[in-house]
Amino acid sequence: MPIIEGVNEQTANSVALHTSSGCTMAGVDRPQLGSVKTPNCDVNAPGQGANEGCVVSSGDTRTYGKGFNNNKGGVYATRWTAGQGIQVWFFTRSAIPGDLSSNNPNPDSWGLPVATFPFQACPANKFKDLRIVLNLTFCGDWAGSVYGNTGCPSTCVDFVQNTPNAFGEAYWKINSLKVFQ
User: Fold this and answer.
1) Which residues cross the membrane (predicted)?
2) Tens of pLDDT along 57-87?
């Protein structure tokens, strides 16, 4: 179970899974705080954006961007189990469970997660040999494709290349990263 603690400057408050075909969350009971934005985890799902995956959005502005930074960050915790699927929790600094600090996590005591991805219509074997990757992709598949609709000047790539001062607050400051098995 990865536990990510830190401060970031991201522009979205969503959790997403990206898979090949044969993984959907449509019509599945999902006890969670967030709301389903897109149900199909397939990166090529019809009726969804390219590489969108299955997305759960949180209305909590403390989970990203300026709200996240103003609260001096927080903790994201993810649990993967074959029986329960994947759940993602977010805790503000003042609400971090004591069992995380003591390195003895007990997710069953944390309440509803922000996002739940059960393996009812998505085989657990879609999620194996996983890696933790943290990056800032300014003009990736999603951002690069919607940039032209924002009213911002030029193209996403040109803006990033020619306006480096616009990204002085774009960083990850990670206090710790823990994985429990």
Assistant:
1) none
2) 988 888 887 888 888 889 999 999 988 899 9
